[in-house]
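Translate structure to sequence.
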């Protein structure tokens, strides 16, 4: 099953916040959002890398409040809809979600670990009751077989989600994995399916294409691949490749290329790439945003970060369990000392 029209979501101003420790400024947010809007992008996601209400010592404090980020982006949008990433636990309904809606957020994407869709029910239901466009998101989706993913996606559909996006949060997928899982969900759901790629193994754009060819309607991308770890599927490349393959994204290629140039000039400090630790992160199936803390703590204790990633993968560690990084590093350091 394939679709000819695709809904491309620009996640540069949310996933890209991971790449700069959540320190995007008002100017950076507004100048890029205006360029993406001018290119004809339908949905622009904004916020802390971990989403609404996530700014904290544990996962990183943002330079701006959620409200400040929303205002900076909302003020420049002419046609694009503003989207947020919402993880129940980080974001509460009354403290975070209700004010976000009042601030002008148009699209709510409610996310959970791929086997925990139950926690999204209240947030999805509330957002739909407010008349908002709502999607479910299954993170770290490489950790569950297609049958379980379909079961969890059906829960989100039952709660009122208007589509479900599979996130390859660790950049662990090969194209064959994408085809298997996206195809299974597309055949088993009555709502659209989406895909969110990371580039740890250098396959993000190819995986996005495999998703579209397997029935995905929603495709995420970030300008210059600006995102956690090795980055996301490069948005301007997605637009170009999909155009070549005959898909309609509704995005002006030249203007998207211009927006990507603005992103590189105004937002990117270090260009995302599939570095050694990113590749190991993808192989081990560990959340892409763990790259920086793993590198930092491993260096402090004199431990090989590659060993840390494989041990984190063996333990099935997921986002929100950053404290386990230190535990693993200390254990590896003690083992190394005993073996000397």
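Result:
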């Amino acid at each position: 099953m394939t679709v000819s029209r695709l809904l491309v979501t620009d996640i540069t101003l949310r996933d890209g916040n991971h790449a700069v420790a959540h320190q995007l400024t008002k100017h950076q947010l507004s100048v890029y959002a205006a360029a993406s809007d001018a290119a004809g992008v339908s949905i622009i996601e904004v916020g802390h890398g971990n989403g609404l209400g996530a700014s904290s010592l544990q996962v990183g404090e943002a330079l701006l409040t959620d409200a400040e980020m929303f205002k900076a982006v909302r003020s420049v949008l002419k046609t694009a809809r503003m989207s947020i990433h919402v993880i129940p636990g980080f974001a509460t309904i009354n403290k975070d979600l209700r004010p976000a809606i009042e601030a002008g957020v148009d699209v709510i994407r409610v996310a959970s670990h791929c086997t925990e869709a139950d926690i999204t029910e209240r947030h999805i239901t509330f957002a739909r009751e407010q008349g908002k466009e709502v999607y479910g998101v299954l993170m770290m989706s490489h950790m569950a077989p297609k049958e379980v993913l379909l079961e969890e996606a059906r829960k989100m559909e039952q709660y009122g989600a208007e589509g479900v996006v599979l996130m390859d949060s660790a950049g662990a997928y090969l194209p064959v994995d994408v085809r298997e899982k996206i195809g299974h969900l597309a055949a088993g759901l009555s709502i659209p399916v989406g895909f969110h790629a990371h580039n740890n193994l250098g396959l993000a754009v190819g995986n996005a294409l495999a998703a579209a060819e397997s029935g995905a309607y929603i495709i995420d991308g970030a300008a210059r691949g600006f995102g956690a770890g090795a980055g996301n599927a490069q948005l301007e490349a997605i637009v170009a490749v999909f155009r070549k393959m005959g898909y309609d994204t509704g995005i002006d290629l030249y203007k998207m290329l211009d927006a990507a140039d603005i992103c590189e000039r105004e937002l990117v400090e270090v260009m995302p790439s599939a570095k050694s630790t990113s590749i190991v992160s993808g192989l081990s199936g560990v959340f892409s945003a763990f790259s920086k803390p793993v590198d930092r703590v491993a260096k402090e204790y004199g431990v090989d970060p590659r060993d840390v990633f494989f041990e984190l993968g063996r333990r099935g560690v997921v986002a929100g369990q950053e404290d386990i990084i230190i535990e693993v590093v200390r254990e590896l350091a003690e083992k190394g000392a005993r073996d000397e």
